[in-house]
Every structure is written in structure tokens, then in C-alpha cells.
């Protein structure tokens, strides 16, 4: 099977870490699994243009990018990294609507 086909079978962040034979702290992955996978996806998208066709170097790049995504959350946290839009929105916004603006 090709790398992408094999990766389609993976279901969790732990599966990805094990597939690429990366050492990881289960507690870090448990708390940040979706953030790690999203960051990995983001890194893959950025690297897509320069990605080799050959499976061996491609696998090494994928492994390095997953390790980098994991390390982001070892060194930081989800709120600081702002992977998902909800964390990047900042403080809740309020809006004023006057009674004259309300139409019945």
C-alpha cells in the first residue's frame, strides 16, 4: 500500500504517532489530539508543493511534520497555539441593537 492509503486507515492521533514510530507522552496526546492532527494537516498543506513523489523521503517528511506538530503542544498549549478558529477569535464580541432597529 502507498503512504496515503495506509494513513487513511489511521483513526487517532495515537495511531499516527505509532505508525510513524514516534515517541510521545500519552497525556499530551490525550489532551491535544485534535489540535495535533489539525496542526499536522496544516503543516502537510504548507509542504505540499515541495513534496517528493518517492515514498521514502515523503514518509520521512510526514514523520518530521507530525513530530513537529506534537512538539508544538509539548512546548505550549492549545489556547496559545490557536489551531482552531474558536481560539483565534479573541474575546467575546457584543453588539448594540437599538429598539428603533428592531422591526416587527
Secondary structure elements and pairings:
Layout: H1 3-8, H2 13-19, H3 26-47, H4 55-75, H5 78-81, H6 85-88
Helix pairs in contact: 3-4
What does it look like?
It is a single chain. The protein has 104 residues and is mostly helical. The protein has one domain. The protein has 6 helices and no strands. The radius of gyration is 19 Å and the shape is elongated. The protein starts with a helix and ends in a 16-residue tail after the last helix.
Largest sheet: none
Termini Cα gap: 62 Å
Number of strands: 0
Helix and strand run:
HHHHHH
Please tally the helical runs, counting DSSP H or I stretches of 4 or more residues: 6
Number of domains: 1
Low-confidence stretches: none
Overall geometry comes to elongated
What structural class do helix, strand and pairing data support?
Answer: mainly alpha
Identify the notable features of this structure and list them briefly.
elongated, mainly alpha, 6 helices
Brief write-up:
The protein is mostly helical. It has helices at 3-8, 13-19, 26-47, 55-75, 78-81, 85-88. The chain has one domain.
